[in-house]
Design brief:
402 residues; alpha/beta; Nucleotidyltransferase, domain 5; eight-stranded mixed β-sheet; five-stranded mixed β-sheet; 15 helices; 13 strands; globular
Amino acid sequence: MSPVPAEYALVLNAGSSSLKFCVYHSPEGRRWRLEARGQIEGIGASPHLSVKDAGGGTLADSRLEEAIRDGRGALDALAVWIRSTYGGARVLGVGHRVVHGGAQYDRPTVVDRQVLADLQELIPLAPLHQPYNLAAIEAVSEALPKVPQVACFDTSFHRGHAEVADLVPLPREIGGPALRRYGFHGLSYEYIASVLPEVAPEIAPGRVIVAHLGSGASLCAMRERRSVDCSMGFTALDGLCMGTRPGAIDPGVVLYLFQGLRLSVKEVETALYKKSGLLGVSGISHDMRVLLARTEPEALLAVDYFVYRAAKEIGALASVLRGLDGLVFTAGIGENSAEIRRRIGEACAWLGVAIDPEANERGGPRISPSGSKVSAWVIPTNEELMIARHMGSLLELTGGRD
């Protein structure tokens, strides 16, 4: 294990049943250096702490003896581990992933009471994530009131779209300027954009579609490493089929759930956010790894639909870009499933996408043959480092401008 830093920055990504975190150090003004990456999972059930150092070595791997009922309890457990590991080291700042910044917050922001109140108004637009993101901010404020906190938004990267891309064609008097397409997974896309010149320089200045495929899934069309359009819109329900979310569906389906089936608002919300997508189609699991290992017709159909929707949306975004130079896979499924990459590549062969079987099995970074019209890549994302960079720049900490 490396020497204990005298100062460090903490990055948090709080969810309903897990708390992911990274500890960063900036030695002698150089780039951010990862000290530790870990998570507390099983919040509310059987909590488990796992932490690894930058080299993948295990720093902690244990069941937590005391019950952790919520995110606040998880933060308390994390604080105990940090104190035991880093002693009297000073916390320079805490950066948070916040899913929705709304119309007001188009860039990373230092959090104060007014910012927190504004973000709480957006909870109905991101009920799976926003409440837990903000609860973590509140808990840190109580425990470390003098430590600055920075909120980094998944919507910010998409704020440069043309008006036509973000338009929601409803009567203007209904929702006003806040009723618009926002796009999500922006921190992931921003990181990929930042490393394209190094990893895939031949496509960095061109037309690229990045496929962030995981439990949450979306696509981003980029031109010159800037977001042009995103498959997600007003909320993170839109676009691709996901683990438990349906992606794009006819709005009339939602009306039918209310009017025809007489479901309550809460029942519809639960169905859309927690019971649809891969889980809803298969009736087996939301986990792509599980579904790929099963042979039931329902499992096969769920995987087929996931691939179908991804290929369909890639075609749509390619038309927005008026052509395509590169396709990048990232996030849990995108980085780890050679089978899904192969199938999406085959469905997009008409665009010029080609997948090299051996390179694909190795996991890239380039997984297309030399000379292919549209090159394909696997680039691991790093949202936490993106948050650390923003926090460093905003708080003028060393390491923030790498």
